[in-house]
Write the structure tokens for this entry.
Amino acid sequence: MNERYSVARGMRDMLAVDATRMSFVEQAFITTLRQYGYEEIRLPLLEKTELFQRGVGEATDVVSKEMYIMEDRGGDSLALRPEGTASCVRAAINNSMLRGNNPRLWYVGPMYRYERPQKGRYREFTQVGAEAFGYTGPDVDTELIEVGTVVWEQLGIAEHVTLELNTLGSPASRMRFREALIDYLTPQREFLDPDSLNRLSTNPLRILDSKNERTQQIVSQGPNISDYLDSESVEFFVDLQSQLDARGIAYQCNDRLVRGLDYYTHTVFEWNTDKLGAQKQLGGGGRYDGLFEILGGEPTHAAGFAVGVDRIALLHENCEASVESDAADIYVVTPIGVFDTRLDAIMKGLRARTTLRVKRHMGGGRLKVQLRQADRSGARWALIAGDQELQKNVVGVKWLREARDQVDVSIDALAEFFEQQHD
Ligand code: HAM
């Protein structure tokens, strides 16, 4: 026998209900985003490595430690996308999408980060993202947050999701805060954990969300971003909060929230849950007014978010929220010798006139064997159309999950019959 292969570390096969749950979560976001007028954009899985180095930031963990980078046969350095925002901005610039139009876009698909895998953290995971270009805000920031809130409700998990909010202010105020933080932390550098010490020279803001207790203690006595905001940044943040209040959207302000990607200005937010252990973050986003320029475009206001579908699916499962399975509703048993086009017409009619899933038995076999397969398929009914039945212009309907007697139903009334039965 040849060698069997296991799946690569951090990658997953998702089977049956796990796959269905992923689609269900994706669809909840996609449907809601469409209802808000967001339009789909499909972006490549591979981008030039430099796009993320410039866009997301060299000093971020995502770029410095987690990217899958390859050289293609032509010698170009390409990266599997670790996130969608930089690609989305690149696409908007390349396709002149802002000419006379302010696009609001959504995307869904796999992202890749070489992280240490554990429950809720994978090397290939799925995001749904939304990005709005050309809006000064904070109306659009509020709308983006509202979309999330609507979907948590729809999925029945709202009570387990909290929203954290902060502002990083304008680039100038952020820079002043950064300097103050460096000035404060440098004399205490020997007390910082190794990761934070590293970040002091590369990405000092990230020290704020260090999990190390001692570092946290030091940081808690240090400068606070709110003291470094210019009046325009304060006004923006106050305005955002009053718009959220007006919509009844609950949030907690957290002045330590900085996010892991470098492009943010003003608004930053994260949706968290306490039901998934260490992998708390279900999604996050914010405003990134400087990214278009960094990537060679015209200065453009922008804001967006992305959610982690894998984690939301886990939470949904933990809450024991049900999803409709992909199993067929009706399993059509096909006795040998039956004039097949009649049976085909019956199935075609059912598929066209109802929303039921109609699965046809394949490969022949005795009635008993076919019925066993019908049972295993998870279908609710077996439809039996032998010569005898068809001659009488009926089919037999057998309940597979309920103790009820088989009945004959007229072929003409079959769609109505199933529609009445289906709740
Ligand atoms: P992010 O916070 O890096 O933001 O990722 C968004 C979400 O993706 C996270 O909250 C998490 O749920 C999920 N996620 C991240 N890494 C993993 C992983 N290894 N395994 C499973 N799930 C994961 C962004 O990516 C930004 N592009 C969001 C954004 C859009 N900001 C503005 N526009």
